[in-house]
Each structure stands twice: as structure tokens, then as C-alpha cells.
Amino acid sequence: MPDAPLNGGTTRVALIGFGTVGRAVAKILCESTDKSLRLTHICNRNVEKKKQPWVPANVIWTDDVQSVLGSHVDIVIELIGGLNPAEQIVRSALQAGKSVVTANKQLIARHGTDLLQLAAKQGCHLEFGASVAGGVPVLPAFRTGLCGDRLHGIAGILNGTCNYILSRIENARIPFSEALEEAQARGYAEADASEDLDGGDARAKLAILALAGLHARVAPESVRARSIRTVDAVDFDYAAELGCTLRQISRADLKGDTLFADVGPCLVPTDSPFGRVQRNLNLVVTSGQYGGDMAFLGAGAGGDPTAVAVVSDLKFVAEAIGAGAGKREVPSNVSAPAISSDFETPWYLRFFVRDRPGIVARLAQIIAAHHLNIDSLLQKPGFDKSSLPFVITLEPCRDAMLHPALEEMAILDFSIRPVLSLPILRQS
Amino acid sequence: MPDAPLNGGTTRVALIGFGTVGRAVAKILCESTDKSLRLTHICNRNVEKKKQPWVPANVIWTDDVQSVLGSHVDIVIELIGGLNPAEQIVRSALQAGKSVVTANKQLIARHGTDLLQLAAKQGCHLEFGASVAGGVPVLPAFRTGLCGDRLHGIAGILNGTCNYILSRIENARIPFSEALEEAQARGYAEADASEDLDGGDARAKLAILALAGLHARVAPESVRARSIRTVDAVDFDYAAELGCTLRQISRADLKGDTLFADVGPCLVPTDSPFGRVQRNLNLVVTSGQYGGDMAFLGAGAGGDPTAVAVVSDLKFVAEAIGAGAGKREVPSNVSAPAISSDFETPWYLRFFVRDRPGIVARLAQIIAAHHLNIDSLLQKPGFDKSSLPFVITLEPCRDAMLHPALEEMAILDFSIRPVLSLPILRQS
């Protein structure tokens, strides 16, 4: 009779969503010697096809979410992903007085503040440590080891697909399209990888990090996302001349009432923590007023690492429930800063031109007219004159200063591709 | 009347020990807008000389520990360090029903299990997140983001003094003695730096990490500690030939009922996370059954970063007390494994000899007689024949296999310094 209340000390857990992460979570729970957590329900569509022999016989398999929410479970693990029906399930669970653990980044990025308030009102817990950077324990650090600091900045490599592709181009100098196909073949990228490549995935994660770490409410859409599709293998050659490589970086800096935020490809020093991240690993660097910079590196995706984050949250919530800590307070210190992408930074401008005399002079003229300063001009030999890549780097200036100059450059008739402008991150 | 019970929601905190870290903790508490923590006492010898204008007037300054323990404080922060009188103060505080936050690595390394049991018996909390790696939030991760995993290995750069010295020799090829003097001049090493250089400090930290992360009770003295004093600038030249550099590495691997543990200089790949740690930073890498490897990097010492760890623990304990979570359970899953330093690893053997014919043949003979396999022989040109350094690397073998061979080598008359044998860590 799994639906009857159990004896004290045991927390009943229902799993909704039995994909890769769900199976890994169930496996950890079933293999654990800790009997204080008891898996009571596994809920999924076509559940008959999902059954696993290693799941104890007293676990209820069902495709009926309502029966789970109406049962005596204490904690619901939501691993369906996406907004619909996940949002409604999480709201219903909280309204039914059940705590929720989720790995759903879209849900938390969009509705995190509301859902946290609902959870607090209901005396429940809502944890989402697995929603960013998989198993890398940065979100839990915000409520434990870093909570004594006052954080003002977060920067990270948050999308494993982009990092796989960029580090492949870096190491093999293959074209972007080939690196993407390889990532798809190896299961590191979906058939439609737009969310990853164009920054949608990373900015949802950045919004969650900003909420949990900087106490700043940020709509994901308000963060500028630049695609990595514009990056060419030749950019790694020119970046190397500058001691740099390219990575998709997500960053948020809180300065007064403004949150400076950006997601997209950046130049980073090759020997920096960011420059060294290979394959599909994730790295998050937090900057605090007292503790300085802390870096967290690990597997940002995959069933098992993500499941560790889910089970860790589960244990935290179970312990809090066990301790009678139902009176979690409504987060009161969440601000709603203005969002800006107007970072002051040095810039890398890469041109592809049909070569002819006077091109550099014309570009230098535009740059000077906008009161920008050229730091270096790089042109490697050996390229076809009809499609010649070269680079101008600029001394630090605000994005808003650069933008009008880029607009003038966009209409020059010798350009055969749009100008690629990338921030150069000298720090970290 | 600071000694009268306060209204609910405020946790009273006493600070015992007002050195660098104590001042930084007080500063964070006094600058915080969070009024749920209230500093009520600061206790130190010669307290009159310690008073600071930025501390609120209602904080009691005292040199009388007993008056603090007899007051209504909820949490005692012990920042005296050392075993005596810190141990007695912590025991007395717990016996008086007060929770304790401490940064005291010697105390926790030696008495952690006992003190945790005492705390549990008294319904109190004992946290020590600042006792290892300063502000790097690895200990808190064991109770949050990593608690869903089953960890089997921990390795780290845990001593900033050693890392400062080794990375200075690496970068400037200065003699060990010069690097040490520089570290002392800059405040990175004490006048008597034996605890740091000879591994005593790091193995105390390793014992704490093993307790909190691997649930293994380890007496610090039972862990082999090798000194970094034997490292010479020339070792960095030879290590570079192998793609490696040298770092003081502390590692613990749980295999069945045995904990393999070692502290001391090792060769690590230059482009590995360990090889890249510069200056006095700390790095901890945890290895879990499900989540794989996670790396934590940051400032391992210094007043402010360490204070972040203390204040983070303080907030955790205050929240637990506020939630009525007094019934913390006695840690029941702590094992007492056998401790061994008998790792199987490739080895780096460095000789300083008075050159003459037949030396390599003699060494090769000893190595073969012990069934060990030479992987490479390195001899760089340009050294004085009367004090010639050269290197033999061995294929992986257990420490116990190597040891008798080293004993035979120790008595060879052409050696003018003891043979230096260092593990080569190829992983991570």
C-alpha cells in the first residue's frame, strides 16, 4: 500500500519523466543504501514500454500525473522538460503541498521567481540545481559555500554543444559545418541545434544563475544572445596571433542598478580557465566582493552527472522536510535591474573582403571618425585575394560606441561577408 | 542588554579569536544588510588593543571565554586555531548547547569525528567549511551539490605555500631556498614553514576531506607526507621533457576497505588542471561514481576568502537552527579504512652523481633485479660532471615494489645526494 502514509524518517519521492536523466535518478535511488528516500511512483507516457527490471516491485508505474499529485508523495521530481505541461505539473504539485525538484531550465528561467514565491507560500521547497551546468555544483554553492559572500559577477561556459564545436574547430581547424555534423553524429548536438548555437540555451541558464547567485530577476529574452554560427576556422588562426581562442561565454555583471549581460562567442586567452575548457565540459566562475573568483568545472550534461544534481537536491529537500523546515521564506532580496549588453571591452573585428587597394584606409577612416582606437591589424599571408580574411582589433570601448561604426562598415561594397565583431575577454 | 534572549528570527553569534580571519568575519557581518545574524561578542586576549571603530557599540569585547560560553549566544565561531585551548572551547560550547563554526583544521583533522558525535548528541551543529582550501566551497559541496553522488576519490593542491614556491621555481628556475625566502618575505610562508613544506598542513586537510567527502576516518599521521624540500630547479627541466611540472598533491582514493593516501610533490602534466594552478591558489578535484570529476578552484587562504567560508557556514547553521533542525543525526556511515600509500604509478627517479663510467649500467642492473621496467632515461647536457643530475622514469609499479630498489640505490658510492623518487600522475 504505497499510498498510505509511511513511518517518520522516510520521504516519498515520485519521478515524473523517465528519459535519460530520469532513469539515472531512479538508478541512483535504487542503488542507494540510504533508506530515508523511497521512490514510490514513476510517471511517463507509454509507461509500459519504460519498465525496468531493476526497479523494486513496490514502485507504481503510471502515465497518470494526477494520480501522482493526489498521492501521499512528499517530493515530486519533474524531469519532463519544456514549459508545457511541466509548468502546470510543478504548480499543481506545489499547490498540493508537495516540494519539487526539477532540472527544467526553461521553466526556471521564465517562471523561477513566481514558482519560488508559490513554494514559499505553500511551505514547500523548490530546488533546481540540475537546471544549469548539469552536475557542476554551482547552484547549490549559492545557498551554501558562497552564501557568505556578496557576488557581483558570474561568467561561464554553459553550453556543452557550443564548446564541443568550438574546441573541435580549435584543435582540428575544420569548418564550422563539419564540426556541427560531428557533434550531431556523436549525440552532443540535436538535429535542430538552434537553441544551443544561437545562445537561447545558455541565456536561460544565465538567467537562472543571475537569479540564484546575484538575486537579479532577468527575463532570458532580455539578454543579448549572439550566435556561434558566424565563427570561422580562420578566426582561430587570428585569435592565436593574439594569444587567444574562441569560446561561447555567458556573463553577467551587476553594477549598481544595471545588470550587464551577454551570451555569445568571445576571444579568451588560450591559457585562461575558459580557454582551457575542452569538449563538452562546463565551467562557471563566480566573482565575489570578499572571496574573489571561484571556478567550478565538470560535466555539464549527461544522465549520470545531471542525476547527481537532482539527487543532491532531493536529499537537501528531504532533510529540510525531515527537520520540519517548512517555513521557507519568500525571497525578499530579489532585484529587477535594467539589463544592458553595453560592456566596455576590446574588440576583434574580422573582415572577409574582395581585395583591392584602399580597404584598410577606408576602414581606418570609419574607425577614427567614431573616435575608436585601432590596437592591431592582422593579415596572415596565403589567402585567396577574392575572399581575403583579415582582422582589426580595437582598444576597449563600449558596445554602443562600436555599433554605429559597424553599421557604416556593413554597407561597404568590398565586404563579401558581414563583419564579425567579438569581445576580447582579457580577464580570467 | 545583549545577554537577554532576543526575539525570534535573530541568531546571536560570538566570535572567539580576532586575528586576520576573525576581523574579516566581523567586517562581513557588520557590513551585511541581513539582520538575522547578530554579532554579540568578540573575544580575544588583550582585547582592548583589538577594538575596531566599525564594530557596533552593542558588541561586547571580552577576553573571558567563559563569559561568552555562559551567555545566550546561539553560535560560537572558533578562530583561535591550534589544539589548545581551541579543543576545550569547542567542547565546552557544544556541551553548553551552542552550535560551533570553526576554521580549525588541526582540531577537525584530529577530533572531527568525536566532535561531530558530541554535536549530534547535544542537538547542535558543527561546521568547518573554512578548515580546508579557505574560500573554495568544496566542503559545503559534500553536503549539498555532491551529496547525491558516491565519491571514491579526492585530489588537491591544498597548500598555498607549497604551490607558491613550486610555481615560482617553475617560472623563474630559482633555487628552492630563494623561492622559500621570497614566499616568507611576501607573507605566503611562515618563518618556520615545516608544517607547509613537509606536508603536515596538507595531510590534515586531506584527512578532513576524506572524512567529509569519503566518510572515512583517517588519522592525519597515518597519511604518508613527503617534503617538497628535496625538489630542485633542475627537476622542472627534466619534468618539462616529460610534458610535466611539479606540484604538491594530496590525494585519497577509496578502494574497498583501503584508503590509498599520499601527500607530497608529484609530476603532473603541464596542461592538466593541477599543472596550471599558479601562485597560492587551491584546487580540489573530486571523483564520483556517477558525476565523474568535478574541479573547484579559488583562493585557498587569506582573511576575506576564508571569512566567506565561515560566514557561509554561519548562515547554514543559523537557518538550520531557525528551522528547528536540532535533531542532526550522528554520522553513522563513517568507516575506518586501512590507510596505504602503496599506489601503483609511474615513477620519476632523479640522481645527482659524481660522473664516471658504468653508473647507468649499475642502476639498470638494480632496476632489472627488482623486476621494474625503465620507461626513459633523461640526461640534459651542460652540467658539471662532479654533480651531474639525470633522470630515470619507470613504468607503473607499486610503491612497495620500488622501495627495496631505492634502498639498494641509496648506498651507491657515486651518488652525491639521496635519490629523489616522485610519482608521475598521468590522469587529471
Which descriptors would you attach to this protein?
homodimer, 3 domains, 428 residues, alpha/beta, six-stranded parallel sheet, Dihydrodipicolinate Reductase, domain 2, Rossmann fold, 17 strands, seven-stranded mixed sheet, 35% helix, Alpha-Beta Plaits, disordered N terminus
Provide a descriptive summary of the structure in words.
The structure is a homodimer of 428-residue chains. The first copy, chain A, folds into three domains: 11-127 and 303-322, 3-Layer(aba) Sandwich (Rossmann fold); 139-300, Dihydrodipicolinate Reductase, domain 2 (2-Layer Sandwich); 344-423, 2-Layer Sandwich (Alpha-Beta Plaits), CATH 3.30.70. The first copy, chain A, has 14 helices and 17 strands. The first copy, chain A, has helices at residues 20-31, 65-69, 86-95, 105-121, 138-143, 160-172, 176-185, 194-197, 200-214, 233-241, 273-276, 303-322, 359-369, 399-410, and strands at 11-16, 37-43, 60-62, 75-78, 99-102, 126-127, 151-157, 224-225, 244-255, 258-269, 281-288, 292-299, 338-340, 344-353, 374-378, 388-398, 420-423. In chain A, the strands form three sheets. In chain A, strands 7, 8, 9, 10, 11, 12 and 13 form a seven-stranded mixed sheet that branches. The first copy, chain A, has a six-stranded parallel sheet with strand order 3-2-1-4-5-6, with helices on both faces. In chain A, strands 15-16-14-17 form a four-stranded antiparallel sheet, with helices on both faces. The first copy, chain A, is elongated, with a radius of gyration of 24 Å. The first copy, chain A, starts with 10 loop residues before the first strand and ends in a 5-residue tail after the last strand. Chains A and B meet through helix 5, strand 12 and helix 12 of A and helix 5, strand 12 and helix 11 of B.
